[in-house]
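Late entry, evening session. Most of the bench is empty. Finally got around to the prediction I had been postponing all week. Sequence below, unchanged from the version circulated by S.P.
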Amino acid sequence: MSAFKNLPTAPVAPKKPLTDTRHGITRTDDYAWLRADNWQAMFKDPSILDPEIRTHLEAENAYMNAAMADTKELQKTLFAEMRGRIKEDDSSVPMKDGAFAYGTFYVTGGEQPRYFRIPRDGNHKDEAIRHVLLNGDKEAEGKAYFRLAGIDHCSDHSRGIWGYDDKGSEYFTLKVRDLSTGEDLPDVIENTGGGGAWAPDGKSFFYTVLDENHRPSKIFHHVVGTPQKDDRLVYEEKDPGFFMSVGGSLLDDFIYIDIHDHETSEYRLLTTNDLTAEPQLVAERVTGLEYSMTEGGDVFYILINADGAKDFKIMEAPVEAPQKQNWREVVPHKPGTLILNHMAYARHLVWLQRRDGLPEIVIRDRKTGEEHAIAFAEEAYSLGLSGAAEYDTDVIRFSYSSMTTPSQLFDYDMATRQRTLLKTQEVPSGHNPDDYVTRRVFAPSWDGIEVPVTLLYRKDTPLDGSAPCLLYGYGAYGITIPAGFNTNCLSLVDRGFVYAIAHIRGGKDKGFQWYEDGKMAKKTNTFKDFIAAADYLNQEKFTSYANIIAEGGSAGGMLMGAVANMAPEKFKGIIAAVPFVDVLNTMLDDTLPLTPPEWPEWGNPIESAEFYNIIAGYSPYDKVEAKPYPAILALGGLTDPRVTYWEPAKWVAKLREKTTGSAPILMKTNMDAGHAGASGRFQRLEEIAFEYAFAIKVAGKM
């Protein structure tokens, strides 16, 4: 029996057929009109959205509100639970850098972080010595959306660059603040990627500008006190298929320009001894060759996948001649052990790797070559490596958590191997790990490959198929979903849900090959793996098909659309957040911000008939058919530059037209936000409470 009763008539989007012929194949798109022609300008000024489109999105929101009206109290309860698990006046443990230590804190009721510093060895809990550098709540006043990009101090600690986005469009404005007075200087830098890299003297910095198609195409050098129009162009990336960022080395002697897409890298270096020099090319881009750099005094350490090192190896090169011909291997490639990132300090080389699906931190003494690893014993867990803000140190910082263990923050002395617990995540409303079970199981996929699935449930949850399940998946870009502590999902688990994460192909959970086997022509493995996870959970009676609600966002939203088409009968409901579902049309539109950089992930259907047909074969919007679909909730953001609002809008319109079932198809568009949803910490909890209320309602557990 449906949990949705007495619904008003759902909005019907008018059809305005638009035909497109590529590679001799003609397609008709009835809902292409939902894509605003002036989307670039609208992202900066949402008020200019075409009134017909706005009216349709608002009608969808009204229908969604009617369908979810009986969950209002449940949403409030869920929100209160989630908020009750957050220490509202929480503070980070500051990171030491020179004469100071820098951190963030929140105040009770505050939505935004506040950035502070204290004397290097001061007690961060002593408010009397806490100097607030940036008050996010104050800066956000009066704005429907506000997202900080943080604050980055210069070497002498006198000034900081801070950035904000107040539209959700991810065009960030940069300002320069005097850190002693808290006053902003007149400098205002528009249309940036959100951060900058200081020159050592603190009088100038480097930053990235986004073009009209929202691509980071230029690096500029800004001298504090001069207008943006006078900034010097340092480097321009002419290929729209590449992302670009700028950063500085720990020793302040180099500025890194990192140019990359999803499979190819190129670095250019600018010595801070001569800020007017041309950036120096390290190794030119070669398709499929990825590398990243960190400085180690007289050498660079280079993490690279050259010469068949699919899971990466580490090379070194002299600082004065870092070109490829001078590289030599220092950490060899070990198939199946994926090196994720690396850091270098005066006496140690550090890297984070994943082996057998679990992370570990490896430390090498640079003088003796002796290595040791930091690892943990739980069946599934998450590690985060934050390193240090100083080069001449033996102490690095890392975090640890599992699905049942709240996050713990450690300082680790690499020389003595002494571990110091700095902080354990507090759950003010209480949390007893012994009440819960976390497990790592393996689901056989269509080709016999075993897919890891992480589970969390209460000890008293019946495992007879009757438990509802939220099954989460992503599976793209090599991103691994960690098995870390998540206080929000406890609101489902405490109501008898099994919370499951399917570590499907397309991520790097089982090494780089795991990623390659879920991209380009092999993309459908991602979808089949997720369905295999549902099959396994049904077969082993952790849940049943009639009780599974699937959830995924962005590229994980593409996953949701694909499994809805491929196996709708195996899911009771589907939550698709900012879902990338109009894959073929988006990959055919090279004006969209992410399209050229995404071709190495999905294929280029403009140039290749083969990839046109591959993408057309799974693109969720194109594959919607007349069949009974489960209850679906799609969420979009009006100013989202990554997955544009019209993707879920078109998908929902087509689903509603085609479905032969009675389950509702709902869409919620956040008219004040972009890809990441609401910007404040409690506003974000309200969105999660809404999604979970949908899951609980669909599961019949209200």
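Two things to note before I forget:
Residues 88 and 330 are 45 Å apart (CA to CA).
The radius of gyration is 25 Å.
Will write this up properly tomorrow.
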